[in-house]
Protein backbone atom coordinates (compact mmCIF):
# COMPACT_ATOMS: atom_id res chain seq x y z
CA UNK A 1 0.00 0.00 0.00
CA UNK A 2 1.77 3.05 -1.23
CA UNK A 3 5.17 1.42 -0.92
CA UNK A 4 7.25 1.07 -4.03
CA UNK A 5 8.37 -2.47 -4.74
CA UNK A 6 11.87 -3.60 -3.89
CA UNK A 7 14.21 -3.00 -6.86
CA UNK A 8 14.92 -6.08 -8.90
CA UNK A 9 18.13 -7.83 -7.78
CA UNK A 10 19.55 -7.66 -11.30
CA UNK A 11 18.87 -3.91 -11.39
CA UNK A 12 20.68 -3.50 -8.05
CA UNK A 13 23.59 -5.61 -9.32
CA UNK A 14 23.73 -3.57 -12.53
CA UNK A 15 23.64 -0.30 -10.57
CA UNK A 16 26.49 -1.53 -8.36
CA UNK A 17 28.52 -2.64 -11.40
CA UNK A 18 27.75 0.71 -13.04
CA UNK A 19 29.04 2.57 -9.99
CA UNK A 20 32.26 0.55 -10.03
CA UNK A 21 32.60 1.19 -13.77
CA UNK A 22 32.17 4.94 -13.30
CA UNK A 23 34.78 4.99 -10.53
CA UNK A 24 37.25 3.22 -12.84
CA UNK A 25 36.46 5.70 -15.62
CA UNK A 26 37.05 8.62 -13.26
CA UNK A 27 40.53 7.31 -12.49
CA UNK A 28 41.25 6.78 -16.20
CA UNK A 29 39.86 10.23 -17.06
CA UNK A 30 42.12 11.90 -14.53
CA UNK A 31 45.16 10.48 -16.29
CA UNK A 32 44.10 12.07 -19.58
CA UNK A 33 43.10 15.40 -18.04
CA UNK A 34 46.38 15.88 -16.22
CA UNK A 35 48.53 15.34 -19.32
CA UNK A 36 47.75 18.77 -20.75
CA UNK A 37 50.49 21.18 -21.85
CA UNK A 38 48.63 24.15 -20.27
CA UNK A 39 48.55 22.39 -16.91
CA UNK A 40 45.79 20.39 -15.29
CA UNK A 41 42.21 21.41 -16.01
CA UNK A 42 39.92 20.92 -13.03
CA UNK A 43 36.74 18.86 -13.36
CA UNK A 44 34.69 22.08 -13.02
CA UNK A 45 36.70 23.75 -15.76
CA UNK A 46 36.25 20.68 -17.95
CA UNK A 47 32.48 20.91 -17.48
CA UNK A 48 32.68 24.49 -18.79
CA UNK A 49 34.64 23.33 -21.84
CA UNK A 50 32.11 20.57 -22.54
CA UNK A 51 29.22 23.01 -22.20
CA UNK A 52 30.84 25.50 -24.58
CA UNK A 53 31.59 22.70 -27.01
CA UNK A 54 27.86 21.86 -27.08
CA UNK A 55 26.53 25.43 -27.00
CA UNK A 56 29.07 27.71 -28.65
CA UNK A 57 28.49 31.41 -28.03
CA UNK A 58 26.30 31.18 -24.93
CA UNK A 59 26.48 33.91 -22.33
CA UNK A 60 27.58 33.57 -18.71
CA UNK A 61 24.04 33.37 -17.32
CA UNK A 62 23.12 30.54 -19.71
CA UNK A 63 26.36 28.72 -18.91
CA UNK A 64 25.74 29.04 -15.17
CA UNK A 65 22.23 27.61 -15.64
CA UNK A 66 23.56 24.73 -17.75
CA UNK A 67 26.11 23.90 -15.05
CA UNK A 68 23.75 24.46 -12.12
CA UNK A 69 26.22 26.95 -10.63
CA UNK A 70 26.21 30.57 -9.52
CA UNK A 71 27.31 33.12 -12.16
CA UNK A 72 30.18 34.51 -10.02
CA UNK A 73 31.68 31.01 -9.65
CA UNK A 74 31.31 30.32 -13.37
CA UNK A 75 32.84 33.71 -14.16
CA UNK A 76 35.94 32.81 -12.11
CA UNK A 77 36.19 29.46 -13.92
CA UNK A 78 35.99 31.31 -17.23
CA UNK A 79 38.67 33.78 -16.09
CA UNK A 80 41.08 30.90 -15.50
CA UNK A 81 40.17 29.16 -18.77
CA UNK A 82 40.62 32.41 -20.68
CA UNK A 83 44.02 32.95 -19.04
CA UNK A 84 45.14 29.52 -20.30
CA UNK A 85 43.85 30.31 -23.80
CA UNK A 86 41.14 27.64 -23.83
CA UNK A 87 38.15 30.00 -24.10
CA UNK A 88 37.48 33.54 -25.25
CA UNK A 89 34.86 36.15 -24.46
CA UNK A 90 33.55 38.20 -27.37
CA UNK A 91 30.95 40.98 -27.49
CA UNK A 92 27.46 39.75 -28.30
CA UNK A 93 26.06 41.02 -31.60
CA UNK A 94 22.61 41.02 -29.95
CA UNK A 95 23.30 42.90 -26.71
CA UNK A 96 26.15 45.26 -25.93
CA UNK A 97 25.85 44.32 -22.25
CA UNK A 98 26.55 40.63 -22.82
CA UNK A 99 29.59 38.63 -23.80
CA UNK A 100 29.55 35.38 -25.71
CA UNK A 101 31.73 32.54 -24.49
CA UNK A 102 33.49 30.38 -27.07
CA UNK A 103 36.16 27.74 -27.18
CA UNK A 104 39.35 28.91 -28.83
CA UNK A 105 41.04 26.71 -31.40
CA UNK A 106 43.37 25.68 -28.56
CA UNK A 107 40.32 24.76 -26.45
CA UNK A 108 38.82 22.69 -29.27
CA UNK A 109 42.18 20.97 -29.84
CA UNK A 110 42.45 20.25 -26.10
CA UNK A 111 39.02 18.57 -26.03
CA UNK A 112 39.74 16.62 -29.22
CA UNK A 113 43.05 15.40 -27.78
CA UNK A 114 41.48 14.57 -24.42
CA UNK A 115 38.68 12.60 -26.09
CA UNK A 116 41.21 10.80 -28.27
CA UNK A 117 43.33 9.85 -25.23
CA UNK A 118 40.28 8.71 -23.29
CA UNK A 119 38.98 6.68 -26.21
CA UNK A 120 42.41 5.05 -26.54
CA UNK A 121 42.32 4.10 -22.85
CA UNK A 122 38.86 2.59 -23.31
CA UNK A 123 39.83 0.81 -26.53
CA UNK A 124 42.76 -0.97 -24.93
CA UNK A 125 40.46 -2.31 -22.21
CA UNK A 126 37.54 -3.13 -24.52
CA UNK A 127 39.86 -4.86 -27.00
CA UNK A 128 40.86 -7.26 -24.23
CA UNK A 129 37.22 -8.25 -23.63
CA UNK A 130 35.74 -11.31 -25.32
CA UNK A 131 33.54 -10.44 -28.36
CA UNK A 132 30.34 -11.53 -26.58
CA UNK A 133 31.10 -9.21 -23.64
CA UNK A 134 31.84 -6.31 -26.05
CA UNK A 135 28.46 -6.82 -27.76
CA UNK A 136 26.68 -6.93 -24.40
CA UNK A 137 28.49 -3.77 -23.28
CA UNK A 138 27.50 -1.96 -26.45
CA UNK A 139 23.88 -3.04 -26.15
CA UNK A 140 23.75 -2.11 -22.47
CA UNK A 141 25.34 1.30 -22.97
CA UNK A 142 22.99 2.12 -25.85
CA UNK A 143 19.99 1.10 -23.75
CA UNK A 144 21.22 3.17 -20.82
CA UNK A 145 21.82 6.21 -23.05
CA UNK A 146 18.38 5.91 -24.65
CA UNK A 147 16.58 5.78 -21.29
CA UNK A 148 18.73 8.53 -19.75
CA UNK A 149 18.26 10.93 -22.68
CA UNK A 150 14.53 10.16 -22.82
CA UNK A 151 14.16 11.00 -19.12
CA UNK A 152 16.21 14.15 -19.59
CA UNK A 153 13.77 15.23 -22.31
CA UNK A 154 10.78 14.26 -20.13
CA UNK A 155 12.20 16.53 -17.40
CA UNK A 156 12.19 19.40 -19.90
CA UNK A 157 15.99 19.35 -19.96
CA UNK A 158 16.07 20.56 -16.35
CA UNK A 159 18.91 18.26 -15.32
CA UNK A 160 22.34 19.80 -15.16
CA UNK A 161 24.05 16.70 -16.57
CA UNK A 162 23.96 16.24 -20.25
CA UNK A 163 25.63 13.94 -22.73
CA UNK A 164 28.99 15.35 -23.67
CA UNK A 165 29.85 13.34 -26.75
Automatic annotation (TrEMBL):
InterPro entries: HTH_MarR-typ (IPR000835), MarR/SlyA-like (IPR039422), WH-like_DNA-bd_sf (IPR036388), WH_DNA-bd_sf (IPR036390). It comes from the Bacteria. SMART domains: HTH_MARR. Pfam families: MarR_2. Residues 18-146 form the HTH marR-type domain. This is MarR family transcriptional regulator. It comes from Streptomyces durmitorensis.
